[in-house]
Amino acid sequence: xxxxxxxxAVEPIGINExxxxxxxxxxxxxxxxxxxxxxxxxxxxxxxxxIADSDVxxxxxxxxxxxxxxxxxxxxxxxxAFTGIDHIDVAYCKExxxxxxxxxxxxxEAVSELAIGLMLDVMRKLSEMNCNIRDNGTRNNFLGTExxxxxxxxxxxxxxxxxxxxxxxxxxxxxxAYSRKxxxxxxxxxxxxxxxxxxxxxxxxxSLHVPLTEETYHLIDTKMLSLCKSSAIIINTARGNVVDIxxxxxxxxxxxxxxxxxxxxxxxxxxxxxxxxxxxxNCVCVPHIAFATRESFDARIEIVKNNIVxxxxx
Length: 314
What we know:
Blueprint: E1 6-9, H1 17-28, E2 33-36, H2 44-51, E3 56-59, H3 66-69, E4 77-80, H4 90-96, E5 99-101, H5 108-124, H6 126-134, E6 151-155, H7 159-170, E7 174-178, H8 184-187, E8 192-193, H9 196-202, E9 205-208, H10 222-225, E10 233-236, H11 245-253, E11 259-262, E12 283-285, H12 294-312
Parallel strand pairs: 1-2, 1-3, 3-4, 4-5, 6-7, 6-9, 7-8, 9-10, 10-11, 11-12
């Protein structure tokens, strides 16, 4: 069992005063101190100062680079309050034997629901219609399209991809899936596994649910997007760089795709005003909110807490 360590949350991650006290009392049982910073600050100098002599660091998706970790020699564990870890210098952590434990599964429902929400927004032009009515307008003869009966391609059948697929089946969709591994449980429910080009060609909607790795960087590039129907829409709640953003914007602006719903970008918002997707046709953009629900944040804190306790008790 590990004791007498300094545990630091470099940002609030939804921890209220009651939960902060609970965590302090819990970690005190291991003779560990717990410090919570109540604002988010990505400045390298500030981040370094906050981590300083910490043994355990709680962090969400703030970029944590080698230049910071090099100045924090005591760090032994990164308790990541996030699913992905592509914002962390994993190679350096391996070199330093810094263990990384993520919060897998905390936002599965939240992200899946937002993916569906973006599909509905794009297909029914909810954001546009909201602006119309506020400008004293009407639907202006607009006709939307329904999810029922559409073919939706799920790129990546991890937990979020699987949940999204099941929600789409409930809407009456035909679901295709691209994944390194087929899951019998889902083929039995009518989900068909295909290769990526086939998925891109046959889908009315393509929803992305893969992590960002060297293999998935720009997985959806000009070549893949050119396979899509001109009536197809792209939904991205995964990672921004899974898609070639400039290629996607170009396809939208030239009518080669019907629309897109985007929650993630090549960097965290705010984005520059001339960002390609902010100026693309029929593109609904939201500021990386798929994971952000009260329920998911509560679940995330519990997962992070349990991850740290399990590590302390090794």
